[in-house]
Amino acid sequence: MERSTFVYDGDCAFCTRCAEFIDRRIPTDARVVPWQFADLAALGLTEGECEQAVQWVGADGSRAAGPDAIARLLADSGPRWRVAAAGLRFPPVRAAAWPAYRWVARNRHRLPGGTAACALPQEARERLYGPAGRPTPGT
Question: Is there a contact between 70 and 16 (Cβ–Cβ < 8 Å)?
Protein backbone atom coordinates (compact mmCIF):
# COMPACT_ATOMS: atom_id res chain seq x y z
CA MET A 1 0.00 0.00 0.00
CA GLU A 2 1.42 3.37 -0.97
CA ARG A 3 -0.74 5.63 1.25
CA SER A 4 -2.33 5.31 4.63
CA THR A 5 -6.14 5.19 4.71
CA PHE A 6 -8.61 6.55 7.26
CA VAL A 7 -12.01 4.88 6.90
CA TYR A 8 -15.27 6.31 8.29
CA ASP A 9 -19.01 5.65 7.98
CA GLY A 10 -20.19 7.55 4.92
CA ASP A 11 -23.85 6.86 5.73
CA CYS A 12 -23.56 8.87 8.92
CA ALA A 13 -23.98 12.62 8.52
CA PHE A 14 -22.01 13.33 11.72
CA CYS A 15 -19.11 11.13 10.53
CA THR A 16 -19.21 12.75 7.10
CA ARG A 17 -19.06 16.21 8.69
CA CYS A 18 -15.99 15.12 10.65
CA ALA A 19 -14.39 13.78 7.44
CA GLU A 20 -15.12 17.10 5.72
CA PHE A 21 -13.39 18.87 8.62
CA ILE A 22 -10.37 16.61 8.11
CA ASP A 23 -10.31 17.45 4.39
CA ARG A 24 -10.52 21.19 5.09
CA ARG A 25 -8.33 21.57 8.16
CA ILE A 26 -5.98 18.65 8.70
CA PRO A 27 -3.05 18.37 6.27
CA THR A 28 -2.66 14.63 5.87
CA ASP A 29 -1.41 12.48 3.03
CA ALA A 30 -3.81 9.73 4.08
CA ARG A 31 -6.83 8.90 1.99
CA VAL A 32 -10.01 9.70 3.93
CA VAL A 33 -12.72 7.46 2.54
CA PRO A 34 -16.15 6.19 3.56
CA TRP A 35 -16.04 2.45 4.14
CA GLN A 36 -18.96 2.00 1.75
CA PHE A 37 -16.66 3.06 -1.11
CA ALA A 38 -13.44 1.48 0.12
CA ASP A 39 -11.98 -1.84 -0.95
CA LEU A 40 -12.32 -3.36 2.50
CA ALA A 41 -10.73 -6.66 1.49
CA ALA A 42 -7.62 -4.90 0.18
CA LEU A 43 -7.44 -2.93 3.42
CA GLY A 44 -7.93 -6.05 5.53
CA LEU A 45 -11.09 -4.66 7.12
CA THR A 46 -14.62 -5.99 7.58
CA GLU A 47 -17.95 -4.17 7.44
CA GLY A 48 -18.43 -5.05 11.11
CA GLU A 49 -15.18 -3.35 12.10
CA CYS A 50 -16.10 -0.28 10.08
CA GLU A 51 -19.59 -0.11 11.60
CA GLN A 52 -18.07 -0.18 15.09
CA ALA A 53 -15.42 2.53 14.70
CA VAL A 54 -13.35 4.60 12.32
CA GLN A 55 -10.34 2.65 11.05
CA TRP A 56 -6.74 3.47 10.18
CA VAL A 57 -4.70 1.31 7.86
CA GLY A 58 -1.15 2.61 7.60
CA ALA A 59 0.94 2.44 4.46
CA ASP A 60 3.09 0.02 6.44
CA GLY A 61 0.05 -2.22 7.12
CA SER A 62 -0.41 -1.06 10.72
CA ARG A 63 -4.00 -0.81 11.91
CA ALA A 64 -5.91 1.12 14.55
CA ALA A 65 -9.55 1.80 15.38
CA GLY A 66 -11.57 4.50 17.15
CA PRO A 67 -9.56 7.14 19.00
CA ASP A 68 -6.35 5.24 18.24
CA ALA A 69 -7.15 5.64 14.52
CA ILE A 70 -7.80 9.35 15.05
CA ALA A 71 -4.44 9.66 16.84
CA ARG A 72 -2.71 7.96 13.89
CA LEU A 73 -4.38 10.33 11.45
CA LEU A 74 -3.33 13.35 13.52
CA ALA A 75 0.22 12.01 13.87
CA ASP A 76 0.35 11.80 10.06
CA SER A 77 -0.48 15.51 9.82
CA GLY A 78 1.21 18.85 10.50
CA PRO A 79 3.12 19.77 13.69
CA ARG A 80 0.22 21.16 15.72
CA TRP A 81 -1.89 18.10 14.90
CA ARG A 82 1.00 15.86 15.97
CA VAL A 83 0.82 17.53 19.40
CA ALA A 84 -2.89 16.66 19.56
CA ALA A 85 -2.03 13.07 18.56
CA ALA A 86 0.53 12.84 21.36
CA GLY A 87 -2.08 14.12 23.80
CA LEU A 88 -4.57 11.52 22.60
CA ARG A 89 -1.96 8.80 23.06
CA PHE A 90 -1.12 9.90 26.62
CA PRO A 91 -2.28 6.91 28.74
CA PRO A 92 -4.82 8.71 30.98
CA VAL A 93 -6.29 10.55 27.98
CA ARG A 94 -6.36 7.36 25.90
CA ALA A 95 -8.12 5.53 28.74
CA ALA A 96 -10.84 8.20 28.76
CA ALA A 97 -10.96 8.49 24.96
CA TRP A 98 -12.33 5.00 24.36
CA PRO A 99 -15.44 5.37 26.57
CA ALA A 100 -16.02 8.85 25.13
CA TYR A 101 -15.65 7.50 21.58
CA ARG A 102 -18.09 4.67 22.27
CA TRP A 103 -20.60 7.16 23.70
CA VAL A 104 -20.30 9.36 20.61
CA ALA A 105 -20.63 6.32 18.32
CA ARG A 106 -23.80 5.20 20.12
CA ASN A 107 -25.28 8.70 20.08
CA ARG A 108 -24.02 10.10 16.79
CA HIS A 109 -27.57 10.33 15.44
CA ARG A 110 -28.28 12.88 18.21
CA LEU A 111 -25.21 15.03 17.57
CA PRO A 112 -25.10 18.10 15.27
CA GLY A 113 -25.24 16.91 11.69
CA GLY A 114 -26.44 13.45 12.73
CA THR A 115 -29.49 11.78 11.23
CA ALA A 116 -31.73 8.90 12.25
CA ALA A 117 -29.91 6.69 9.72
CA CYS A 118 -26.76 7.03 11.83
CA ALA A 119 -28.42 4.96 14.55
CA LEU A 120 -29.14 1.99 12.30
CA PRO A 121 -26.76 -0.88 11.56
CA GLN A 122 -25.66 -1.09 7.91
CA GLU A 123 -27.96 -4.03 7.15
CA ALA A 124 -31.00 -2.07 8.34
CA ARG A 125 -29.89 1.07 6.46
CA GLU A 126 -29.59 -0.91 3.23
CA ARG A 127 -32.99 -2.53 3.80
CA LEU A 128 -34.60 0.91 4.22
CA TYR A 129 -32.51 3.09 1.95
CA GLY A 130 -30.82 0.70 -0.49
CA PRO A 131 -27.08 0.30 -0.93
CA ALA A 132 -26.68 3.82 -2.33
CA GLY A 133 -28.56 5.49 0.52
CA ARG A 134 -31.73 6.12 -1.49
CA PRO A 135 -35.11 4.83 -0.31
CA THR A 136 -36.03 1.51 -1.82
CA PRO A 137 -39.34 1.38 -3.72
CA GLY A 138 -42.31 0.91 -1.42
CA THR A 139 -40.66 2.42 1.70
Answer: no
The count of C-alpha atoms lying within 13 angstroms of the C-alpha of 37, restricted to the half-sphere facing its C-beta, is: 11
Domain ranges of the chain: 5-129
The share of the chain scoring above pLDDT 70, in percent, equals 79
Q: Where are the alpha helices (DSSP H) in the chain?
A: 13-25, 40-43, 47-52, 66-75, 79-89, 91-107, 122-129
Angle between the 79-89 and 91-107 helix axes, to the nearest 10 degrees? 90
CA distance 110 to 14: 9
In this predicted model, what pLDDT tens digit does every residue of 17-56 receive, in sequence order?
899 999 999 999 999 999 999 999 999 999 999 989 999 9
Asked if 52 and 61 touch (Cβ cutoff 8 Å), the reply is no
Tell me how many degrees the CA angle 135-17-125 measures, rounded to the nearest 5.
25
